[in-house]
Amino acid sequence: MNKYFLALLFFLSSGVFVVSFAQFSLSIRVVDAASDEVIPGAVVYVAGKSLLTDFDGMARKNALTKGKYTYKVTYVSMQTLEGDVEVSSDTLVELKLKAGFRQMDELVVSGTLKPISKSESAVPIEVLSATFFKKNPSPSIFDALQNVNGVRPQINCNICSTGDIHINGLEGPYTLVLIDGMPIVSALGSVYGLSGIPMGIVDKIEIVKGPSSTLYGSEAMGGLINIITKKAEKAPRLYLESNTTSWFDTNLDAAISYSKNNVGVLLGANLFNYNKPKDLNIDGFTDLTLQQRASFFSKVSFGRTHKTQVALRYLNENRWGGQMGWQLSDRGKETKYGESIFTKRFEFIANQDLGNDLSLDLSYTHHNQDSFYGTTKFLGDDKIVYFLAKKYFKIKSHEVLVGTPLRLNLYDDNTFITESNNQNKPVYMSTPGVFVQDQWRVSDGFTALAGIRFDYNSVHGAIWSPRLALKFKDDKQTVRLNIGRGYRVVNLFSEDHAALSGARKVIVKETLKPEQSWNVNLNFDKQFVFSRGFVGFDASVFYTHFFNQIIPNYDVNPAEIIYANLKGYAYSRGFSLNLDLATDSRFTANVGVTFLDSKISDGEQKVRPVLSERVNGVWNLSYVIGKKGLKIDYTGNLVGPMRLPTQNELDPRPEFSPTWSVQNLQLTKPFISDKLEVFGGVKNIFNFLPYKNLPFLIARSEDPFNKNVTYNNEGGVVANEENPYGLNFDPSYVFASLQGRRMFLGFRLKL
After folding, report:
1. 45, 207, 35: which is closest to 111 by C-alpha?
2. Which of 152, 223, 402, 557 has its CA 20 to 30 A from that of 652?
3. Whole-number Å distance between alpha carbons of 239 and 256
4. Do 95 and 112 lie in a common domain?
5. What is the pTM (predicted TM-score) of this model?
């Protein structure tokens, strides 16, 4: 198989570039009118294209014919500048922006697969810059998303700290994670794939809440997270960031870039180490999973007009949690209980711009997991190839996108899922498809976007995914209405850690059908601009209705997890509010809250799903003392209450969590003209710990192999003097990290 990937790589790398017959280029240099300093990252609209200025404040548009062109330049905290420029030869124009207050109109790609300004997108998209994540430094993107409204990282196991990302109350498998627009983190990699992405190579993250299956296929039912890496020509030549906490968990990010003669190279690395076991709740188990992780990233781009881009990432991770004193020699044995996971992951992404709005995308991921959960061995190997050819057509006021995606998935493990007639039989799925999307600019204030996708899955057959988006806009506010259908092909063991951890037996009652959903999202966005700042207000109402949802049932028997398609229906609904504030007193604030109502109905009764919260709030408050002085960041979240997986009516642990909050304080001081930053502070200021006021978190932690558990004829646990609550060993009762208050210190160097 490898020779075919090498052949494809060679093809993409050596594609024939289209020769431009245009004669002239227009270069626009953007500077601050007050200081004459260049402004990198300004958005320049010219000749129907959106460009970003580089670190020299430059944006260039090539292949222009002779004539007059209109430009518009926007940048945060600056007044918008518009005008015309005459081009009759290669032209350089310097534009000076004056101070003012407005939100930056970022370029976004996730909603339509085409770069477009955020305000013009018919799909509501939240954009998080690298600056956002500096307010609360975290060792992975998984942890960093805890301060995003409506987005919640959920820890699913007290022992190995597996987790997923919930969007608007929907579980992690409904969230698709992309890198540079390619669906990289999915299937077996959904549990650990968000670890080890070097923050030094991240330019921004785009988040779409609501189904995006029309463009991205399976696993985008609840929304998507698109991690966009930096371009070498706009990245710092050197970036270093390191921090450590009083728990001695240490993280290092490094990145270097090179750009010359239309060739760009970006290299990044992430190293993380935590090897100091702690057991502050004295249950005999580690409070935080021990980890050693190394990840390396490289991206090369070349070509002036029609670029080729190739990126690679490799992740190697060793993590374990379990009984204190566990050693590698205990792996898979009953001497001490431990959950040990070795992960090796390789990612490849390639993009070839063929000109004339035609491009080819290719990605390949190989995720290998070698793990033991106590004495339960799980070996998983997942290979995914994704290919996409897409073409844009401009027909009067219509922008039409046509795509032909192809996804190939080869999955193998040592469970009964890949077993046939007592022989191993890997699962192979191919999903070719086609989609068409039309964005129609009906008028200056009204845009309609309609799309439909057809996929044919080799296991499940034909699947249709339509979408409709309407945008109404004037100078004061924007209203967006999105309606879409989503679907998801389930990878049971690769997505649900509870199927492996603990002593519950897995029961699959039937051949599982793909999950399907309909979603409606109404979004209102308004900005209030005044002389000393601005206020941005964003509100959304959403509703998702599920068919064939696959629900892990923990309630029938404490010794079993029963998987089946829901015979009734399920829904998740709610609304969210978000407020942005910036003033010339150097104070900025972002505050958000999401209220959720999720239910599962079997036709007779409605119940809340496990690990579903009622409210999720976040805040990010920042203040700078002096013109370039000390910066104070106060961040936090508020979550709860959520339903937890208790085992039976005798279980003394509460069925619902309290409403809880983790808050952080950081001080940052720049040095050497902002090239060096030193930061430090306190995480979890008020020392929230989920085990406070509880009899225990891990059920029967003193008997992890259930040697002293008695079962009845139906497989249920018998309550007796030794086991008064009738419980199995089970680490799935978890809703927050066990890390309490801790100090942290770090630095950033950017050249």
Report:
1. 207
2. 152
3. 6
4. no
5. 0.82
Give Cα 479 distance to the centre of its chain.
25
Instruction: Quick: pLDDT tens for 411-434.
Output: 888 877 777 778 888 888 899 999
pLDDT value, residue 690: 92
**Rounded CA separation 66/237 (Å):** 36
Domain end: 100, 118, 133, which one? Answer: 100
Q: How far apart are CA 292 and CA 318, in angstroms?
A: 5
CATH, residue 66: 2.60.40.1120
Please say whether the dihedral angle defined by the alpha carbons of residues 603, 609, 615 and 617, taken in this order, is positive or negative: negative
Contact 626, 591 (CB under 8 A): no
> Does 39 share its domain with 146?
no
In the chain, the largest separation of any two C-alpha atoms, in whole Å, equals 92
User: Each residue of 570-587: b (16+ CB within 10 Å) or e?
Assistant: bbbbbbbbbbbbbeeeee
Q: Where are the extended beta strands (E) located within 374-460?
A: 376-395, 398-413, 419-420, 423-424, 427-443, 446-457
- Please name every residue paired with 457 in a beta bridge, in sequence order, or none if there are none: 461
Q: Name the 3-class secondary structure at 510.
A: coil
Cα separation, 749 vs 237, whole angstroms: 11
What 8-state DSSP symbol labels residue 718? P
Residue 45, pLDDT above cutoff 60: yes
665, 633 Cβ separation under 8 angstroms: yes
What are the tokens at 538? 């964003």
Q: Is residue 9 part of a domain?
A: no
Q: Tokens standing for 552?
A: 């892990």
User: What's the domain count of the chain?
Assistant: 2
Alpha carbon distances (Å) from 672 to 132, 675, 751: 22, 5, 10
In a domain, residue 14? The reply is: no
Cα angle at 145 between 144 and 151, to 5 degrees? 170
**pLDDT digits 0-9 by tens, 182-202:** 887 665 666 666 677 888 888
Tokens of 589: 């604030």
Mean pLDDT of 310-337: 94
